[in-house]
Design goal:
The protein is an alpha/beta fold and 255 residues long. 40% of the residues lie in helices and 17% in strands. Strand 7, helix 7 and strand 8 form a beta-alpha-beta unit. 49% of the residues are buried. Bound molecules: zinc ion.
């Protein structure tokens, strides 16, 4: 099996000091490529540095919606500059998040999101979208940027968001929660996604899949999510991994 972990935070302090060992364990598990995803300016710069350090790694750069309250034009132009690097293959993670206490005003998040969609459009890059408690609010943004390919990262939405996203050409990426016992509805939705739109990811160091649930996650564990996805769809893991692999190659221009 060959697998792409389409979303990992190797740039996070929980993984960065051990990056070499983490990449080695990923390779041993068949994970040949990892998309290292930024969430602010320093982590985006680190994502590019990691991609330059290890073959098979590429970067996504972007400002997470949690940054909306503290980021302005300066950070946006820093992200735009990082995005020009040849190893940057997506803008992300960006999106909308109305959970908890940190989020800034919805208008401010919408503004930050759209400014980063503009970078993606200008450079011909896809966007990696984080969505939490934001309902269908991503759809009008996607409609304003119809030529930008979207990836719904760590999909956790409902059937309506799924079908409306697919209608707009989005790729749907599944992470560890697909393996959690209670998530029957998520597995039901995962079985509905056309194979040519599927991606798998860890979102490590967060959300480790079963049987590693509760531990620190890392890219090698994406294998568990891939197998769960194949099982829930009644497909052979080897076959599904080939399709998900070629989907990731085309979205993130992997070689
Ligand atoms: Zn993430």
């Amino acid at each position: 099996m060959r697998i792409v972990d389409s979303h990992a935070h190797l740039n996070h302090e929980d993984l960065l000091p051990e990056a070499a060992e983490v990449v080695e364990r990923a390779r041993a598990a068949g994970v040949s490529h990892i998309v290292v995803v930024g969430y602010d300016v320093p982590s985006s710069a680190e994502a590019i540095a990691l991609a330059a350090r290890f073959p098979g790694l590429v970067a996504a750069v972007g400002l997470h919606p949690y940054e909306a309250g503290r980021c302005g034009e300066m950070e946006i132009s820093e992200i735009a500059a990082l995005a020009e690097h040849p190893l940057c293959r997506a803008i992300g993670e960006i999106g909308l998040d109305f959970h908890g206490e940190e989020p800034a005003l919805p208008e401010r998040q919408d503004w930050l999101l759209r400014r980063q969609f503009e970078i993606a459009r200008r450079l011909g890059l896809p966007v990696v979208l984080h969505q939490r408690e934001s309902g269908l609010r991503i759809l009008p943004v996607m409609d304003d940027f119809p030529d930008v390919t979207a990836v719904f990262h760590c999909f956790a939405g409902d059937g309506e968001l799924l079908s409306e996203g697919l209608r707009r050409g989005a790729y749907i990426s599944f992470a560890g929660p697909l393996t959690f016992k209670k998530n029957d509805e998520l597995r039901r939705l995962a079985a509905l996604v056309p194979a040519e739109k599927l991606l798998v990811e860890t979102d490590s160091p967060y959300l480790a899949p079963v049987p590693f649930r509760g531990k620190r996650n890392e890219p090698a564990y994406v294998r568990e999510t891939l197998i769960a996805l194949a099982n829930t769809r009644g497909e052979a893991p080897e076959q599904l991994s080939e399709i998900a692999f070629s989907n990731a190659v085309s979205v993130f221009q992997l070689s």
